Amino acid sequence: MLTLSSPHTVGQNSVSKMMFTLLAALVPGLAALIYYFSWGYLINLLLASATVLAVEAGLLALRKRPVGFFLRDGSALVTAALLACALPPLAPWWVTVLGAALAILFGKQLFGGLGQNPFNPAMVSYALLLVSLPVLMTTRWANVEQPSSFMTSLMVIFGDPGLVLDGLTGATPLDYYKLNIGRLTASELTANPLFGPLGSVGWAQVNLAFLAGGVLLLVRRVISWHIPVALLGTLGFMALFFSADADVHVPLSLHLFAGSTMLAAFFIATDPVSAATSNRGKLYYAAGIGLLIYLIRTWGNYPDATAFAVLLMNFAAPLIDHYTRPRVYGQNKPIKGFKADD
Fold first, then answer.
1. What is the C-alpha to C-alpha distance for residues 57 and 69, in angstroms, rounded to an integer?
2. Model confidence at 325: pLDDT above 90
3. pTM of the predicted model, to two decimals?
4. What's phi and psi for 45, nearest 5 deg?
């Protein structure tokens, strides 16, 4: 007789299934980025995907781990896709390649691989690039008024010396609004072609596309509602009650529908490895991200702030989990904090 140990039930979700569902959910947002801005996003995705697979395969081989087994789980491709969506679409090719390599090396394999990384790998890479290459990371955003074709994007990314970037690149709505607050009124700011009914032209549609992908993840139960709702709710609350005067602060519509807000809420902050794990902990964790995004956008030097907000709360996730552990079956109260005999 065959004897099996418990548990005897097996969940429907595997790592690879979750990762490829995430990739499928990213498609609407990626398609919107390409349509409204540049084919550079697709080129970055291809560069990042090839790099993460090559670097991960090399590091796994050095660690004497089964290369094929770990590459098939799709986690490296998710990192590549998130990084490609976050990077400027017209950045030089080597920025994307460097970022993808940094994500796998310093964001994942340095800590032992999938399931052991305390920080979101894509955000580790993005933050390192932003601090190290601030000019390239802030001046190569595609101009929504003149979306670049595939060939133009290819020439810009691979450094055609005869190509003039004026007109192809431009400031993001968050950049433009923040830099001109105090100098122009809200009505003058929003008269710029960058802005539309939902706050920003192009970026609003991109965020709605990522929102649609996020709904798919919720329906498929790849993620729970706690992190997206707490993050968007906190960011919305802060913007609504502390940025009511659009002449002084970035308005609510831009906070929610410009930059990487929806990408962060549904795809980045929900990383199951680096996020808090208990349901109550997820609420605190995501609320912290929403609060930090608002604070950094309002008073910091970085207009978007998603990467730094997520990484700071990744630091706090283990502590949040420790103090929000659910009640153990058979005990009257949940265990909170350290005991004298711990």
1. 10
2. no
3. 0.87
4. -65, -45
* The one-letter amino acid at 269: A
Q: How far is CA 59 from CA 101, 105, 112, 144, 238, in A?
A: 11, 8, 10, 39, 43
Name the residue with higher pLDDT: 244 or 129: 129
Per the structure block, which two tokens stand in for 121?
């790998």
Average pLDDT of the residues in 130-152: 81
Look up residue 112 and give its amino acid: G
83-to-124, 194, 225, 252 alpha-carbon distances in Å? 10, 24, 23, 26
Contact call for residues 225 and 218 (beta carbons, < 8 A)? yes
For residue 270 the two structure tokens come to 């929900």
pLDDT tens-digit series, residues 253-276: 888 888 889 999 999 999 999 999
Concatenating the DSSP letter of every residue in 94-143 gives HHHHHHHHHHHHHHTGGGTSTTT-SS-HHHHHHHHHHHH-HHHHHH-PBP
